Amino acid sequence: xxxxxxxxxxxxxxxxxxxxxxxxxxxxxxxxxxxxxxxxxxxxxxxxxxxxxxxxxxxxxxxxxxxxxxxxxxxxxxxxxxxxxxxxxxxxxxxxxxxxxxxxxxxxxxxxxxxxxxxxxxxxxxxxxxxxxxxxxxxxxxxxxxxxxxxxxxxxxxxxxxxxxxxxxxxxxxxxxxxxxxxxxxxxxxxxxxxxxxxxxxxxxxxxxxxxxxxxxxxxxxxxxxxxxxxxxxxxxxxxxxxxxxxxxxxxxxxxxxxxxxxxxxxxxxxxxxxxxxxxxxxxxxxxxxxxxxxxxxxxxxxxxxxxx
Amino acid sequence: xxxxxxxxxxxxxxxxxxxxxxxxxxxxxxxxxxxxxxxxxxxxxxxxxxxxxxxxxxxxxxxxxxxxxxxxxxxxxxxxxxxxxxxxxxxxxxxxxxxxxxxxxxxxxxxxxxxxxxxxxxxxxxxxxxxxxxxxxxxxxxxxxxxxxxxxxxxxxxxxxxxxxxxxxxxxxxxxxxxxxxxxxxxxxxxxxxxxxxxxxxxxxxxxxxxxxxxxxxxxxxxxxxxxxxxxxxxxxxxxxxxxxxxxxxxxxxxxxxxxxxxxxxxxxxxxxxxxxxxxxxxxxxxxxxxxxxxxxxxxxxxxxxxxx
Amino acid sequence: xxxxxxxxxxxxxxxxxxxxxxxxxxxxxxxxxxxxxxxxxxxxxxxxxxxxxxxxxxxxxxxxxxxxxxxxxxxxxxxxxxxxxxxxxxxxxxxxxxxxxxxxxxxxxxxxxxxxxxxxxxxxxxxxxxxxxxxxxxxxxxxxxxxxxxxxxxxxxxxxxxxxxxxxxxxxxxxxxxxxxxxxxxxxxxxxxxxxxxxxxxxxxxxxxxxxxxxxxxxxxxxxxxxxxxxxxxxxxxxxxxxxxxxxxxxxxxxxxxxxxxxxxxxxxxxxxxxxxxxxxxxxxxxxxxxxxxxxxxxxxxxxxxxxx
Lengths: 309, 309, 309
Description:
homotrimer; alpha/beta; serine acetyltransferase, domain 1; 5-stranded parallel beta sheet; 10 helices; 13% strand
């Protein structure tokens, strides 16, 4: 029966799906080319380059680390350059028509790749501060190696700091694919646009959302389920959302935000050294060194009859 | 030492685990056969069939799309048919005994496969509306391609719409394996039984739970952490939960539900055009065009002494 | 351009990253050796050993189950022994210098491996109770097989019970890598240190956090987003967190905790048979058979003007 269906009916379904794809992507050139998987592969290579003793598959001797790091760096540069070129070429409509790589796209991609590669040392140095913040921030952490081997916040912030660099260099698609990979692995959703200071730590990870235009200072600590989000957003005269406005809060240095707290709005600033309690819902600024907490736990307790189960 | 343990003691452990498995599955025939991995493979093929320009591994020319889609569709039909046949045969106890595929199971599996395959065009068309809803619903979205490449809600709703079709065709196991794969990838837990209208969007994704008997209208938008769940459930006279009752809410057209809101109960209906604020806890219906929000933010702010860290 | 960068500039980046790694791991010997992937492989083998009819790739006949289980058990024993040896040797500084496996490390690793292997029958037997708890706890569950094939709580609790055994045997790194793998797959974050009784069920899974020093009785049921966490923690005189204090709550037998509830503190005990309502925030003990719930739903409803969208 299935064989018959394939012979006689599958053709209609093929036509149907091709037609829908055509109509949908009319204005958008095809830019997939397995990009998602390639970007994820690069992110894994960057991890292995940053933390070779953790991610390489042998217990490598100190004297060989250099060889491993070098191999990874060369591979990252070549692969990333390839993807960025493909993205620019696919977006460059004229060029698409003759299928040759235009020199402008190629040069732009190369320049961006080199700027990005030269930023990796700086990123790695900031990640050292994040590892220390995790160790100091969690009594359950027994060593720095344990943090590297098993703390999801390190994976999430590594990827976000890398993606943010590409975001600042105006690379389309790739940064967001990176942070969504982190989101899928860790439950932490940080937009590549967010600016985040040193010594950043998120404990327990799942459910954290940090929006595109957030600005976060140094030494900030979040717990699971914290949202740093937008209040609502403006529509343009056609009823479409206006893109690119500052919509997410500012968190100053040394702030702690406990589990499930929600802080919203582009003009909301949490002043330096403040502590925001669990489940607090905040849509306006608080001054430096504020302690914000839900007042009297508002629940009732009833005694039930004893029950067996 | 380990070699000795394997020679002398491992046997007891083997016996023990085999015995536990035997006792547990006495009434249930074996229906695993690597089904989970096979189902996940099919879901990935359906994605590639629906969005070839995103998921295929080359930047494919418009003229070749048809070939790719055709290959995927044939593969999906054959593989899915194989799994559905195996499920029905494994559940058909009589047949199990002589290990031949009974004609009834085979024909039923074939008929269901064909009905399902013929629904894929309709599903793909609805997914076009979800992509538009995501673009209109998030100011951070820069293009439709970005949404396809990096928005977890698209992966979750694609899989749920596919799984729902199989659920409606009374295919056991497979729909739920599909939606739990989506849950694992995206943090969005939508039961395959839920009925969901067009233009559906979930922003930030993580922690959303939508129960089996939910009915959701067109143009509904949710944020992270929203639960559309059950209040509590009836037990039968043996103390077991009664299955198959309407336990989850109805959400009418054009409703927006903000982060962390919880809406419970099978006779709870959120009227058309309503807005439910963040963290609201609702267990009864609200009329059309309601705006429901937590009143006065109930927290206190204290000034702390300045502290260094 | 990229070729030139690799020839002329990549060397500086290599030096930079090697230097950072050196300085960071000065006190810590290298203990990565691809450990993370190896540990994940072992966890998958344990799953296949526990539930062969679900995880093996053929619809296996009852008479062959024994062969499959035996193969898995031998493989688990050998692989785990290898990793535990590597961890102990890498942590044994003296030994590291001459690169020979010291007999003490080897014997300790062997003894631990055997103790662990001998506990697998006990763990599997407890998992049978968890499967029953899931079936009884969710009206949407249609069969035990459906639970094994698609309930994330089963994956999470299987891994945690295995990791807890290794945690109790003082194996470093490995238990936490296991539970973080479960966290990544299911959104459930249970520390390997937590002690959990029989018949444990978590519905919908995502966002649950259970801390290191939690003690949970029999027949406890949680919903998504529940936190069993720490209040705050003591710092030692150098300002570092004091490790190893009881910081997380006790949950007695037959307790149900609804979605989003937060229970904090090492001296907080939820008495037997209690029900904790959704979103409740509790930082002190409640007696047996308490029902704790947020009082009067505190929200307002406004009627909006009808709007089109």
